[in-house]
Amino acid sequence: MDNGAARVLVVDDEPTVREVVVRYLQRDGYLVHELDRGDLVADAVITFQPDLIVLDIMLPGLSGLDVLRAISPNKIPVIMLTARVDESDRVLGLELGADDYVTKPFSPRELVARVRSVLRRAQPATGSTEPLRFDGLIIDRTSREVTLDSRTVALTAKEFDLLAHIANSPKQVFSRRQLLQDVWDSSPDYQDPATVTVHVRRLRHKLEANPEVPRWITTVWGVGYRFEP
């Protein structure tokens, strides 16, 4: 009996990595299922119904990036495990919809903190938080839904978090370091600030008529980003 515990699917072909990750997650109260192959993930998504997936990039059967492509429509939050040298794979994983990443070697406590953060932010908000409304753009923080000109915009959990955070303070300039701390509950010690850049680029492609000349999220060169109401 899981008593309502969140379900985390851990996919890594290194037994020692899985052992450590599973142990720390279980210690934190999560119900965990582990796999060592990428081509087993699709079935596990159906049978285990995970709330979040911890996914290695280099996997037998099917790479982590191909897994991301396959499960993207399910909108399950994903935290990637990547080698520190695989910057291109890391960026591509974020582009494909991953919510976060942790580089190997990693701190198990940091990984559990990321899991906790992503799961918390992926849940609908409680209370009566009023939607943010800007010239056809509506950000509903209770249902975590975004519409633009009456069209629903599909966002990942982290994309929504980032948009809602900066839109809640229009015209305020946020540095990438500040956004890592506020939205990712992390710091540049564990996270590459380029993560923020990738998420902003993804938001622009989903929200902007012309991502190269953004209407909503503008760049303040040398400083960071701000939301234009």
Secondary structure layout plus pairing:
Elements: E1 7-11, H1 15-27, E2 31-35, H2 41-48, E3 52-56, H3 64-71, E4 78-83, H4 87-95, E5 100-104, H5 108-122, E6 132-134, E7 137-140, E8 145-148, E9 151-153, H6 157-167, H7 176-183, H8 194-207, E10 217-220, E11 224-227
Parallel strand pairs: 1-2, 1-3, 3-4, 4-5
Antiparallel strand pairs: 6-7, 7-8, 8-9, 10-11
Helix pairs in contact: 1-5, 6-8
Describe, in short, the structure shown.
The protein is of the alpha/beta class.
What does this structure look like?
This protein folds into two domains: 7-122, Response regulator (Rossmann fold, 3-Layer(aba) Sandwich); 132-227, Arc Repressor Mutant, subunit A, CATH 1.10.10. The model has no long low-confidence stretch (mean pLDDT 89). The N and C termini lie far apart (48 Å). 38% of the residues lie in helices and 21% in strands. The longest helix is centred in the middle third of the chain and has 15 residues, at 108-122. Strands 2-1-3-4-5 form a five-stranded parallel sheet, sandwiched between helices. A four-stranded antiparallel sheet has the order 6-7-8-9, with helices on one face. A two-stranded antiparallel sheet has the order 10-11. It has 229 residues and is of the alpha/beta class. The protein is globular and about 50 Å long.
The shape, in one word, is globular
Give the percentage of residues in beta strands. 15-25%
How does the helix and strand content classify structurally? alpha/beta
Q: Give the count of structural domains.
A: 2
Task: Tell me the name of the CATH class of the largest domain.
Answer: Alpha Beta
Distance between the termini: 48 Å
Number of strand elements? 11
How much helix is in the residues? 25-40%
Rg (CA only): 18 Å
Count of alpha/pi helices: 8
What would CATH call the architecture of the largest domain?
Answer: 3-Layer(aba) Sandwich
Topology pattern, helix = H, strand = E: EHEHEHEHEHEEEEHHHEE
CATH superfamily of the largest domain: Response regulator
Strand order of the largest sheet: 2-1-3-4-5
Mean pLDDT: 89
Q: Poorly predicted ranges (pLDDT <50, ≥5 residues)?
A: none
Can you tell me the CATH topology of the largest domain?
Rossmann fold
Oligomeric assembly: single chain
Biggest sheet features: 5 strands, parallel
